[in-house]
Amino acid sequence: MIDLGLEKMIVIGAVALIVIGPEKMPRVARTVGTLLGKAQRYVNDVKAEVNRSMELEELRKMKETVESAARDVESSVSSAAADFEKQWQDAASTAPPLPDLAPAYPEYRHPKKKWRVKQGAVPHWYKARAGVRTRALSGAARVAKYRPRKSN
């Protein structure tokens, strides 16, 4: 870039003050400042775009290497699986057949107990004396039964 030092800037400012005049100098300085700002933003945008394109190219290369590695792993796994299947088939065809083993435990049979009849065998007077409930209460009946009485 142009190497502008402090001395050169002072000389340029003095020449501009003489040529342009003190009345128009602030407006010209503002215009020059805005133009320089726009130029800097444009240069920064171009730099950012170049950096993005370089990063995209690097990412594409990385993607290609990862995809090729994945293809290599997939082919090695599929070949290993095919080898295993072949060995399994060979081993299964040469092995003697297994004898049919009977279960070591007897088959489950329901006991056919009649638990309702068994419960009903206890006499009603015995249940009442022992405090066993013989009837279920609904929620409303239970609330009514155990609600504290109002004392007036």
Give an overview of the whole structure.
This protein is an all-alpha fold. It folds into two domains: 6-93; 115-146, no CATH class. Helices cover 70% and strands 0% of the residues. It contains five helices and no strands. It has helices spanning 6-20, 25-94, 115-120, 124-130, 139-146. The mean pLDDT is 84. GO terms for molecular function: protein transmembrane transporter activity. InterPro entries: TatA/B/E, TatB.
Q: Spans with pLDDT under 50 lasting ≥5 residues?
A: none
Count structural domains. 2
Number of strands: 0
Rg: 49 Å
* Overall pLDDT metric: 84
Major sheet attributes: none
Structural class: mainly alpha
**Tertiary shape:** elongated
The N- to C-terminal Cα distance equals: 104 Å
Percent of residues in helices comes to 55-70%
Content of β-strand? under 5%
What quaternary form is this? single chain
How many helices? The count is 5
Order of helices and strands: HHHHH
